[in-house]
Design a protein that fits this description.
Order of helices and strands: HHEEEHEHHE
Radius of gyration: 15 Å
Helix content: 25-40%
Amino acid sequence: MITIQNAENDLKDKIGEDADDIKKVWETFKGFCKEPIEGEENKEILFQCGVYDFTGDELFHFDFVRQFTVYEEDEYSHIEQLHCEFLFKPTDELRELEVEEWSMDYEHIDDFLNHIENLREFQIPLNLKPIKSEIYQEEV
């Protein structure tokens, strides 16, 4: 079974060498979202995008996230997020796109995933080439 500690490596192994292929990463991420994680009861998934200057440069961030709540000896410890993030140079079209959608706002994970795939904010960047992509896990 996948653990929170090995989730990043598990997802990277599933994606393989195609980490710049947004469509492949999305399809792999969708399957990964449904997999059980040891000690994790909720499947908290986030899709977010928008133009931000987190890196010091204004870039369009296109990000799929699975969030984990970490417990130590049955006590809440912290939250970690596993990101599949794609960065683009902002264009006028991309500057118009900004969204933050959480899976817990939907009854079923499939309803959430279908909703995301139908968003304009999701569809437009799918056909663009990112300047950078990264899969990483961090404590938030």
